Amino acid sequence: MERRGKAARGGSPGSLAGGSSSPTQPKASSAGWLHVQALIDGGGQIMIGTVAPIRGAAVAHDGKKTLVMLRRRLGETLPSLLDRLDAAIATAKSTGSRVDEINDASSDRRYEI
User: What is the pTM of this model?
Assistant: First the structure.
């Protein structure tokens, strides 16, 4: 019996083959999310997704502390959320204060990443 070869894959899940964007893929903002890039290059991380029970959270951590916690707005696109995350990282870095849309000042419950 002859073995069939597997079809070549276009890369790992989530990767962009060829590095170019197609008409169905949104392009990055013109600024290129420079603050997000600098945070990641400096050993930090971002997380976009669910931080139970918050669906649609965007969190930036510099490796020592959480800088930004955003809640995705109704109808907000992912590129728009990343634009806001980038701006919030810049604000947190320049002021030294956390940007927090997740924790409510009137609540006893606190979320920390």
Answer: 0.67
